Amino acid sequence: MKSNKLKLFIIGTLICIQPIAFGQFSAKARNVKIKDMVIANPTNLREAPAAVTDTSVVLVWEKPSEYSNVTGYTIYNDKGQKVGETDKTYYKLQNLQQHNKYKYRVKAHTGDLEESKPSNEVTIKTEKKEKIINVKDYGAVGNGTAKDTVAIQKAIDACKDGETVLLPQGKYLSGALYLHDNMTFYVDKGAQLVPSTDLKDYPWTSARHDIEDIYDPNSPTKGNPAFSSLINAGTMDHNQKPTTHNIKIMGEGTIGDDSNGLTLRSAYDAFGAKNTATHYGGGSLISLKNCDNVYMDGIHIRNGMMWTIVPVYSKDITSYELDINTTVHNGDGFDPNSSSNVYLLKDTFSTGDDCSAIKSGKDEEGRKIGIPSTDIYYRDCTFTAGHGGITLGSEMSGGISDVFGEDCTLMPIDLKTKAVNSGVRVKVSPSRGGYIHNLKVRDSICNKISVITNYDKQKAPTPGVPLPDISQFEFTNVNAPKGNSQYILDLNGSNFGQDISYLSNLKFNDCNFYSARLDSCKDVIFNNCNFDKGITKTNSVNIEEIK
């Protein structure tokens, strides 16, 4: 019943804000005369990382330099034939022939269907269709009660390069599974991979949460190991580049379970309470360590032990149309951790913690390892519940830069209290050091933007650690629905008297919120912005309002 009420609340909210969403490309809203404008073309057409299968490809591109008169995009093949149309900056082409080359261009168009010149041309080659390995042929039962771990792992181990392991319809109870290079793990419609609730089914491993949890098989009683995840790929080593390649996790089925995930979390908490001599890291639902070229498509994601999808020291990843729905404590949805070139396209989030938290290590260890998270893209993602939508931190000591969000609905509420949480959330602490640079969000609905630079509520700076550098943010056409006093900008730098680290070089274009609060901010421009209750400034300098 509570779930239905939440869905009705979200649907009602989205109905109320729909005019803003459809108006995001409006030339009228930007005071531009369409007749006087030339239609600029989209740029940098490319394949989303790893997003080519034997029958499909996901293309992405950038909006034109001026797009106020653009209402959509048309995709053409090299014969000039129209093969797709969208109002977003990505498109999935389907029903392609295996092992074939295709060439595409994209044109922008206006409401009266006048078109721009084409983008650059991109050439892709679909993969060759290889053998499908059914886990039932290896003894999997799929009745939800018999453990299928051994049978599924046998199928994975038998899977050769380019082949697919298939979970057909059924409920497959399983402990930790280990994927390898050059394979697809396909969870069919009506199939569910259900996590076992027995901690013994998740062997010790090395992982990274706030710090690295290290397992030494030669000294298993030492260190601070972590439990394995339900799905594991790669071996963690911050001194190595990606060592595991070309993995796909796809299908219309489900990974995780509402009930078993909560029970597994309770078992993990109980274990920690009984074993206090050291810290033991929890397992994720899907763990990617030192991986590259990973494609996830269509899967329904439910509760695991804690964090849900976690790439660590990984790169070139695309998640397409994932349905991420968790209620478990620390149930973050998708957390890139010291990872780069990650695309989240059309994903939906309702989570028990941050929807998607970008991380790069904590405090001295994070600074020493020094691997940032960079080039993270969110397009057309919907955030309905969670502690924060697009979240940066709090573990960010290795640095975060170049985070881009567009055409998103950033309206998370708290699952328990229904309180408004931040659509864009930045959280750091003085002990972190590090930096967050070049965050850009545009053409999105957002209830609240929050930047907190003393998340741990320190009373003084950490000796020998420079205060985090949080700067170079830009928000364009980011709007909150009218009438809610919680829909605000809440921007806070670090101020310890003589030690100040301003939030600096912030720019807001065509943004509308209920109010704005600035504390210890510097070099901030509000260009054609509106705040019902104005802007409150404390310890802030060079704040410019342009109308």
Automatic annotation (TrEMBL):
InterPro entries: FN3_dom, FN3_sf, GH28_Enzymes, Glyco_hydro_28, Ig-like_fold, Pectin_lyas_fold, Pectin_lyase_fold/virulence, RHGA/B-epi-like_pectate_lyase
UniProt keyword annotations, A-Z: Glycosidase, Hydrolase
Signal peptide location: none
GO biological process: carbohydrate metabolic process
Domain of life of the source: Bacteria
Keyword ATP-binding among record annotations: no
KW Hydrolase (keyword) present: yes
CDD domains given in the database record: FN3
Matches recorded under Pfam families: fn3, Glyco_hydro_28, Pect-lyase_RHGA_epim
GO molecular function: polygalacturonase activity
Family recorded in the similarity comment: Belongs to the glycosyl hydrolase 28 family.
PANTHER family: PECTIN LYASE-RELATED, PLASMIN AND FIBRONECTIN-BINDING PROTEIN A
The name this protein goes by in its record: Uncharacterized protein
Organism of origin: Clostridium felsineum
